[in-house]
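Assemble and predict.
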Amino acid sequence: MFKLEKSFYSKTSMYSFFAIVILFFLMWVSTSQFLHIDMALLGYMIGTGVFAIGLVIRFSFWIYRAATNKVATRSVKNLFTKERMKRNAKSITKTLIDNILLQKFIFKRGLYRGIQHIMISWGCIISFAFTFGLTFGWFRFDLVDPETYQMVAFNIPLITMAAHGWLAEIFYNMLNIGAVMVLIGVSMALFRRIRDYDVKVTQRFEFDLLPLYILLAVTGTGLALTVSYKFLDGWMHPHISLVHQITVVVMLMYFPFGKLFHVPIRPLATAVPMSYQETLKVDTKTCKSCAQPYSNDDQIADVQAILKQQSFDLQLADGTYLSDYCPACRRRMRALKQMNLEAPKGNPYGPVNTNNGIHISGFGKKRTDDFYGIEEDVKKDLGEEKEYEPVSR
Amino acid sequence: MNKIMYLEFERCIGCRACQAACRECGDHDAKERNYVEYVDFTESRQTFPMLCMQCKDPACARVCPANAIQITEEGVVLSAMEEKCIGCRNCTFGCPFGIPKFDFEKNKMYKCDMCYDRTRDDIPPMCASVCPSEAIRFIDFDEMQQLRRRRTQMNLVEGKKPQEGNKWDYVPEFFGVYTDSQ
């Protein structure tokens, strides 16, 4: 692998090259040696090729980050550990269903946001899957006889269906269904972004609003195509088709570099149940100071390794790291340090002295001599003063 | 934004008005993001307020595998971006000060953002605007310097002298966001 990498400009360019090779190999297989390419979709095909390269580049840079790399490496290692098979299967299924299929956590943030997000995400997934599949010829519809269509996936004939049957109708309207879903979701999202003050505070046009406008343009022109051929006898169809193609290519170019990039990185969420938390909210690692469980050994090891890799010096005098203490103890340590109240030398876990020596509690108490820090010979001089009266002349 | 968040732990009377105010802030979902805790309950009733330091190079952002923690141009470290956060809690363990909180239900991290919507317009954050004992203050850079100097003088009057090795013990807590040109 190392040698192979040397023949490329960089690791990232090697990965991009292989992504493109795999993509076109799949295309070659599924279109029976480029026989069944849909030439009307050529623009989309080139756009998707660029999209794939962009995605690989962004993905590579993301995975090179110290933190991401650590978490991903541990997850991959755990994935192929035999003893963890059951746990892995459970974690992956759970994340897939809860986080990606049903998106439960977004519904907990609000019903409105849940509906909005599930509409956009599933609308996009349906449309993307269908468009990519048709563009690269991964699946196509062949006419067996005038009344029957056959679906061919990767050049393997699959189901046959009546040309006007319900299944065929669903396939014909798949992109329309996706577009309507996205349209509803995007409208809801735009309405929220325009109206909600709290969201406005940190939103940025190019990051939060632009993807919504791009999606709106794509769905708008896409649905206009349907309107054109269904109700207007194909009025302006070639022009709308071209505009739609442009909007889609713009979206594909934008995808890896903007907000939409959160979609392909989401599967990393499986790392949480897979490597860090067997059961949610149950911690196994105990705090060095208060002995309360607050985390898990693997995660703290990862955090410490990531911090060390980036030269964060958070090691204490006794060799422990700040991350060995629970957050509450860390806050307390900071306050103690700041107020000069740390525990007396010897026992770092013993009771603290909340009297910092500046303010003495009660009138009967006196400060110890070492508080004033007066040197011995000076003290002696001060003591000698009392033995004789100063003589004034 | 040229103002400073100025904390004096000794001034805290433990009323938790700052936490109540924090819960009231928009977008906080009735959950406070700051802390008021006892130094050592068995020793005394002294409490201290705790907020985010808004680090220039935040450890929380560095340990985030999803690159979800962003810093505004004013230098405020924001809560994890909701669409990126994968809910691993690395930030809560990486933070040397134990600041970020985590919401298991909504699967997102939230932390003190110095009430960014207020402080970017030089309006004091919720906690500072309600603190009755001025343990949390939102003040000008010059005022902060004055307070620090006065504090050092007070220590001198009390008979303590800062020396090279321990001079930082005489400087009270201050943090916040200010430009270098100030």
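Chain B has a mean pLDDT of 84.
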